[in-house]
Amino acid sequence: MPRVILYKGQFQYDAVNVFVEELAAGLARLGRETVLLDLTVDADRSRIETELERPFECIVAFGAIGRRPPGVAPGAHMYDRLSAPYVAVLVDHPSHHLDRFSIDNMILTCHDRTHVSFLKKYFGGAKRVEFLPHGGSAASGAVSGDGTRPIGILFPGTYSDPDAAYAALRAALSEEAFDIMDFVVERLLVSDGEPMEDALAAVLAAEGRQDEWPRFCEHLPRVESFIKPHKRMEVLRRLDQAGLAVEILGNHWPAGLFRYHRVRPALSYGETLHLMQQSKAVLNMGFVPDGSHERVFSSLLNGALPVSDGNRYLEESFGSGADILLFRWTQLEKLPERLDAMLNGTALAGYPARAAQLGAAHTWAARAASLLALVGRTTAG
Description:
It is built from 14 helices and 12 strands. It is an alpha/beta fold.
């Protein structure tokens, strides 16, 4: 039986280790022996080299954890002798992890097709990069409560201060570098889904400095740390002004920001999924240009309407749009009325059963087959 080694570890959100476990379950159903190693446990870390000595099909590491340590001379690490690929499953923008991609026998997977293009350009085609969308999760156990959905709109998300992020961007850069990145910010605030790296390339090209693009890419995480919180706050403000109450699950939200929204402390991933079962709609604000976020598919699997910033991938995946509400950043004024009509009309009649059926094709277990297909193309070649 082919073996797949999967790494668990310490992540910002507990959801990622759940993704690992669900992906492992999908691999097991496809006839793979799965070996889960928790890199936060000393005993598991010491097993890695032993496990790599036996035949295996691939290593799966979300966020490229357990990577080849920096500073180790080429040829001196066990990953320099891998007989099968190390698959780094990325769940955020690749610019956060550029120093982690030092393994030769490596496949990078991205949940956004523009991220694939970014990495291919950044590494000049030297790295193998593939598209692997996020998967969703269903709450464990029976549906809680009496089947009613007392929560109108749910948004799970930790607060991040956009003003502080913008100040940090300015403080971290030289005046010359900040001027460039500030133009990038301006482009992103008036565009619908322009990738950060493309905005950066356009700004540098206008200055005749396109050759400096790789060097400036290291600043993209700081740009994202402002853009996402800024856009999320604007969406929430628009809904609050329209009287559409959102149940916000997350830490560090200041008091007094909203009139109608209710803020609750963050819950575990499993508890959040159960709250999705009690929600009519779940708000997703990933602001990825051409890809997915697990929240969209988890909403479906738990019978809640996904309300998400739109992009080409989601439009392709959902066809007519009857099972999702997609909005545009540049047309936010339309969102409150559209969302109110969905929640208070007849469109959601019978929706939970239909949504769960649609979401079944977008679980992490379902992504297992796609992952093995990527690996199979490597071994076949």
